[in-house]
Specification:
Elements (H helix, E strand, L loop, with lengths): L1 H13 L8 E4 L4 H9 L6 E4 L4 H9 L4 E4 L15 H9 L3 E4 L4 H8 L3 E4 L4 H13 L11 H6 L2 H14 L1
Helix pairs in contact: 1-6
Length: about 170
């Protein structure tokens, strides 16, 4: 994963420390990533744990400076990834800055329209590393992310439920 390679390179070249940046990943994380963290000696920067309850997850997310949203890449070079995770909408609802790693997709468009997101292509190790360096040197960078209320309302649960009710009433 280019993210881990970028972290390892920053750690090696700049002496990046755990008090400067931390990645917290939890849930069903592929063992490949756990192995990569160990092999690259990133245990001080990246913690990987199992599932957390919804309440525990929300509490933890609300305390984060930046939310991380890595998305699956398309299996075909001929079409965009059609997957839009509910996590994207949860993150927008939390009104926290979001770092997305996604290819050209509707999820990327929603992330950028939200006003809360910055997107980096999942394979662009250098862009990711540059963003982290900017963030470390200027933590106030995240204060520039302001939720676009119109986008938030467009994708809100209340709006989606209202549309569904209208559709069902027409049947």
């Amino acid at each position: 994963m280019p993210v881990f390679l970028a972290l390892e390179k920053l750690k090696r070249e700049t002496g990046l420390k755990a008090d400067q940046i931390q990645f917290h990943l939890w849930g069903e994380i592929d063992p490949y990533y756990k192995k990569a963290v160990l092999e690259l000696k990133l245990e001080d920067l990246v913690s990987i744990t199992g599932y957390k309850s919804k309440e525990e997850t929300l509490k933890k997310l609300k305390g984060m400076d930046l939310l991380f949203l890595p998305l699956e890449k398309s299996n075909s070079p001929f079409h965009r990834n059609l997957f839009i995770p509910s996590k994207l909408f949860e993150y927008i609802g939390l009104n926290r800055p979001i770092l997305g790693l996604c290819e050209d997709s509707e999820a990327k468009e929603i992330l950028e329209a939200s006003g809360l997101g910055i997107n980096i292509h999942p394979d662009n190790e250098n862009e990711f590393m540059n963003f982290l360096q900017q963030l470390i040197s200027n933590p106030n960078l995240l204060k520039g992310f302001v939720r676009n209320q119109q986008t938030y309302e467009k994708y809100s649960v209340q709006n989606a439920t209202s549309k569904l009710v209208d559709i069902l009433n027409k049947i």
